Amino acid sequence: MTPFRCPLCRRPLTQEGGALRCEKGHSFDRAAEGYVNLAVGKSGAGDSPAMCRGRHAFLAEGYYRPFADAIAGEIATFGAEAVCDAGCGEGYYLRVLREKLPEAFLVGFDLAKTSVRLAAKAEKGKENAIAYAVAGIFDMPLPDASLDAVLSVFAPVPEAEAHRILKPSGILLVAHPGAKHLMGLKRLLYENPYENEEKAFVLPGFEKLHDTRVACSATVAGEQLPNLFLMTPYFWKTSREDAEKLASVPSLATELEFILSVYRRI
Question: What is the pTM of this model?
Answer without folding.
Answer: 0.94
